[in-house]
TrEMBL record:
InterPro entries registered for this protein in UniProt: AA/rel_permease1, APC_superfamily
UniProt GO molecular function: transmembrane transporter activity
Coiled coil ranges: none
Compartments where located: Cell membrane
GO cellular component: plasma membrane
Protein's membrane topology: Multi-pass membrane protein
Record bears the keyword Nucleus: no
Chief subcellular location: membrane
Pfam families: AA_permease_2
Protein name per its UniProtKB record: Amino acid permease
Keyword Transmembrane: yes
Amino acid sequence: MGFFALTATMVLDVYEYPTFATSQLNLMFFLIVGGILWFFPVALCSAEMATIPQWEKGGVFTWVSETLGERWGFTAIFFQWFQITVGFVTMIYFMLSALTEVFGWQILDQNPVYKTLAVLAIFWLVTLSQLWGTKVTDKLIKFTFSLGVVVPAVLLLAFCIIYVAQGNPLAFSGSGRNLLPNFHDAATLVVFVSFILSYMGVEASATYSNELKNVQRNYPIAMIMLVVFAIVINSIGGLSVGAIISQGDLSLSGGVMQAFDAYLVHFGIDSAILVKILAFLVAFGILGEVSSWVLGPVSGLYMAAQRGLLPPLFRKTNKHEVPVPIVLLQGALVSVWTIVLTLFGGGNNVSFQVALSLTAVIYGLMYVIFFTSYFKLVHKMPALKGVYQVPGKKVGKTIIAGSGMVCTIVVLGISFVVPSSLPQASGLTYQLMLLGGALITLTLPFVIYHFNDKSQHVIIHKPIHLKATETNWLVRPAARGEHMIVSDEKRLRMAEQKVMQKIKTKL
């Protein structure tokens, strides 16, 4: 149960509900298919690699480096980090829509220039606050999660249940009235990308499987519980928005507040103050999530720097153990994505959908490398055995990993299909922006690796893996960071303490 709690937060994202709502009743099909054919393969394969002796530390970077080589290990950890530089944009878009309700500043959400400036201001304020470490953030998350995620989600679900129980008409239309999607219309299938994205990041929790008792039995049970939980929660969440907001009126970044407004009007609750309070809570929840993502993924790239895969500048930390150069690099990239996506995409549903799809594409590229490395492990390195074993021996492992690989490739392909939620006039803009972002992303890690000084590619410091008890379970697994960022000075102090403890023990 403890391991389930450690991973459950990865499926609690209120800001994804409007995107889920675009698939209407089809969303249950997508959640079930994504859970069985993609989530389970990633979870099981990553657990096997995480429990191989000497592979417990380093996560995807270690697994891929040991199977495919250092170049691919760096590429995988780069993609795992790089996706959040785009993901920040979608989160803050959602936050701005909520703040628009609070202050009534419609210009923030409608004017691309002002929206760009607002996203940049929020992101940099949060980023600069993280330069003093995560102690404040860890305390803040307890409030943002309970007040800004749980409370709005529970209220939204409650409103929907009462609305449906009263026999009110539902806003579902066309093929969205059916549980099965229209397989002949690729535009309606592209929403599958957002469902897979909601499952992404589970590999980050697999490293804690080493701490489970009877991992062969208990790990799959925890994953089954998580998928069932995700299907139930996300189905109700998406349907809560889609049941009352028609597809033509749905805003991908402001859909949750649209739903709250509609429910309150329907129930005859004319309270502008209550709407503002709910909007503030939603914005507060997103603020906590943005804060939690600033430093977590950075630890993976910092670990690569400790292998000499980045210039020495990126191995530096401040007195609060924060790798400032990497954090500032991340901020610069987020700024570029914000300007490009908001100004060229118009700052509306097109910008939001491009950002969402690009995040999935970048993460998807990492999973292609991940499954390739697992195939190499199974078929070329049979002597390496993890404490946990994917069932079915070589054939079963190939089928399970193959399912995940096929789903990943499908997601990469359909990401470039213009979603049915966007106007056809915006189709070319969507595809060109997504293609441009994907090509840049695909090129960067290979360019960095090629031009970096290979003589520096040595293990300067081994990563210090965080135990489950040392992490904040309210933060998504992928946002926590698997490793402790430790400066050279602190490592020296830790080494001296170990020596002193040994001396005391002998005495």
